[in-house]
């Protein structure tokens, strides 16, 4: 199947943090997928990426659904809710119920939809016992939505490769370049499109870190990444407050190595 247009919706996962282009902007799995789809579709292929870091599910719905529908794309990816499950109070099944009619609207418009079961990031983050069950419930709900609406489901949670810490960036929350490439490979494989086999490669698992060095690394991470995140939560700020979508309109995309 050949798609002539693709719109990516969501938060930092889809914006592409922390997979940098040489100029410091973010690439990410969605750009990689779009570039590969463009090879199949030809010069008329259009790609938009509305994702903005820090967005909650309701913000993604309020700010991105209508512009997406207005572009009448053939293919849409929707990935949100991860920021919600990190909040102090959240009902993951409530997120699923609010997402249900959104996917229904996209499918009713004739759009093919990609959904995700997120990889397990809780193993190297604080609050695992609280966040883990929430993330699992969201993943289970999204799987049900994919079945109900006939959407493509990308099951990253089932991929043990994402247990490798090198698939994640230094902040332990966003994917590394290797992680984004592997997500792109999963998406393209599910869509039935050929993929560069190198994108599935996983860095060798690092050797276990001695306890004392590991605790030092945890303290540095807390100071550099967790404390700023916590401060934003306390004052009601978001990392995406001053950020706009990197590709707000359908446009061609060049090949990506």
Describe this structure in words.
With 257 residues, the protein is an alpha/beta fold. The chain is built from eight helices and six strands, in the order βααβαβααβαβααβ. It has a six-stranded mixed β-sheet, with helices on both faces. β4 (112-117), α6 and β5 form a beta-alpha-beta unit. The mean pLDDT is 90.
Distance between the termini: 23 Å
Task: Kindly provide the radius of gyration, computed on alpha-carbon positions and rounded to a whole number of angstroms.
Answer: 18 Å
Largest sheet: 6 strands, mixed
Note poorly predicted spans: none
Structural class of the helix and strand makeup? alpha/beta
Total beta strands: 6
At a glance:
By secondary structure, this protein is α/β, with parallel strands linked by helices. The protein contains 8 helices and 6 strands.
Secondary structure layout:
Layout: E1 5-10, H1 12-15, H2 29-41, E2 46-49, H3 57-71, E3 75-79, H4 82-85, H5 92-108, E4 112-117, H6 128-149, E5 152-155, H7 177-191, H8 211-235, E6 247-251
Parallel strand pairs: 1-2, 1-3, 3-4, 4-5
Antiparallel strand pairs: 2-6
What descriptors fit this protein?
single chain; 257 residues; six-stranded mixed beta sheet; 6 strands; globular
